[in-house]
Specification:
Strand order of the largest sheet: 1-9-8-7-5-6
Largest sheet: 6 strands, parallel
Structural class: alpha/beta
Strand content: 5-15%
Order of helices and strands: EEHHEEHHHHHHEHEHEHHEEH
Pfam family, one: B12-binding
Keywords: DNA-binding, Repressor, Transcription, Transcription regulation
Protein name: Transcriptional regulator, MerR family
InterPro entries: Cobalamin-bd (IPR006158), Cobalamin-bd_sf (IPR036724), DNA-bd_dom_put_sf (IPR009061), MerR-type_HTH_dom (IPR000551), MerR_fam (IPR047057), Meth_synthase_dom (IPR036594)
Mean pLDDT: 84
GO molecular function: cobalamin binding; DNA binding; DNA-binding transcription factor activity; metal ion binding
Radius of gyration: 20 Å
Length: about 300
């Protein structure tokens, strides 16, 4: 009984206009002329767009801003050969067939170096990946895979605790470097990120924080395992537009549900969503569940902020 569960949301054309900057007339013209986007229709005949479709529109817009003709931009996005981001300077092609193998190989090389405690070599391999990908591509395609693989290798006893700690601290330090970007934009959202009591894993959360920092958001990163009283105190002092919580165990969200409801515009993400007993929780006006990849999650957060204004 959550106020909004928007990982599978359908957005109307006015909301898409707000999220992409394209006028309704332009959206209709693209649909008629290029067959893109392809919205669904409500019973009343109104256009409805899935979140993933909105992200594709945003990617096309970003490509066009980088000098790509609209038809070519649409073809690239639909083929999945040119993911871009609002902050990307160059157009990269990380998912094309010729790049998938080097990307996976590069990730494997970083991990092998880390497991041998060779920080310089790991830095070298990571820098090579950085030469071929934008900063945002690294955050979406490289760091999550590295973090996930380190966790999996430890859980399956392929590495020991010392190797896991060394690898995690190496990656965490590099992610924290994004916090020095100082790219806060005018009138950008203010976001507070943390994990609830009992949650000690911050991998996904710190990647999201770094990504939002690159987008110019005002990021207040409070780390992990934050007591609820302290979270509410920080909320009153910071007055964020949105609060992001990440959790692995669903019970750490469920038992703090009423306290979370005291804050406006709270989003919850992470593995906890798979087992969260939504039907047993009190009705909420302020808590939303956000899933999907990094682009999709941020698009959902932006929609929530637009809806609140």
């Amino acid at each position: 009984m959550i106020n909004m569960v928007i990982s599978d949301a359908l957005l109307d054309i006015d909301q898409v206009n707000q999220l992409t900057g394209l006028s309704q007339a332009t959206l209709r013209n693209w649909e008629k002329r290029y067959g893109f986007p392809k919205p669904q229709r409500s019973e009343g005949g109104h256009r409805l767009y899935h979140v993933e479709e909105v992200q594709k529109i945003r990617e096309v817009v970003s490509l066009c801003k980088n000098g790509i003709k609209i038809l070519e931009a649409i073809e690239r996005v639909l083929k999945g050969t040119s993911p871009v981001s609002d902050t990307a300077v160059a157009i990269s092609q990380p998912t094309s067939p010729v790049f998938v193998e080097p990307l996976n190989e590069g990730i494997s090389q970083v991990l092998k170096a880390l497991y041998k405690y060779d920080m310089d070599l790991a830095e070298q391999y990571l820098s090579r990946l950085g030469m071929r990908l934008s900063e945002t591509d690294l955050l979406e395609m490289v760091y999550p895979k590295l973090l996930m693989k380190v966790g999996e290798d430890w859980e399956n006893s392929r590495i020991n605790i010392a190797q896991e700690h060394f690898s995690w601290n190496f990656l965490r330090t590099r992610l924290l470097n994004y916090f020095k970007s100082n790219r806060v934009g005018v009138n950008q959202p203010k976001v507070l990120l943390t994990t609830p009591p009992g949650e000690l894993h911050e991998g996904g959360l710190i990647v999201l924080a770094a990504y939002l920092m690159l987008k110019g958001w005002q990021v207040y990163y409070l780390g992990v395992n934050l007591p609820m009283d302290d979270l509410l105190h920080a909320y009153e002092g910071i007055e964020p537009d949105i609060v992001c919580l990440s959790a692995i165990e669903s019970e750490n969200i469920e038992k703090n549900w009423n306290e979370l409801e005291k804050m406006k515009c709270v989003v919850v993400g992470g593995p906890c969503l798979a087992e969260l007993r939504v039907q047993e929780l009190p009705e909420s006006k302020h808590i939303s569940l956000v899933g999907g990849n990094l682009h999709s999650a941020v698009a959902q957060m932006e929609l929530l902020l637009h809806s609140a204004t």
